[in-house]
Amino acid sequence: QVQLVESGGGLVQAGGSLRVSCAASGRTFSTYTMGWFRQAPGKEREFVAAIRRSWTEIRTYYADSVKGRFTISRDNAKNTVYLEMNSLKPEDTAVYSCAAAASYRGSYSDGLSYDYWGQGTQVTVSS
Question: Which terminus of the chain, N or C, has fewer Cβ atoms within 10 Å?
């Protein structure tokens, strides 16, 4: 069983930056595919970013809407994955949740591919 706890959300002005973190329990964190998703009020959950290990390299993936503005990273020593968000826009306002997949199932952007979810942290971007 893996527990995920997000932190770092808050209120920021448009154009600002914020970093959210997701701390995971478990001894095999480094092998997990980790993803960030978000859900705005009245909207469906959407993929934001993912990071996974493929053989000896680390691969990252981003939704088109955040590419170039957001950066996902991980610190395996701390069992933590981060989402650095820059040039934030009001449309980035949402609850951001991290997710973990014990094995890569060929789709990093499908929430059904993930086994564990955190509770989420609210990010609000004011205009």
Answer: N
Q: With 0-12 CB in 10 A as exposed, 13-18 as middle and 19+ as buried, what is 17?
A: exposed
Within a 10 A sphere around the Cβ of 41, how many other Cβ atoms?
7
Other residues' Cβ atoms within 10 Å of the Cβ of residue 88? 22
Let me know: does 20 contact 9? Beta carbons within 8 Å. Answer: yes
| Averaged pLDDT for residues 74-86 | 95
Q: In whole angstroms, what is the distance from residue 127 CA to residue 122 CA?
A: 16
**pLDDT exceeds cutoff 90 at 126:** yes
Assess contact for 61 and 109: CB atoms under 8 A.
yes
Q: Cβ neighbours of residue 91 under 8 Å, at least 6 residues apart?
A: 40, 65, 125
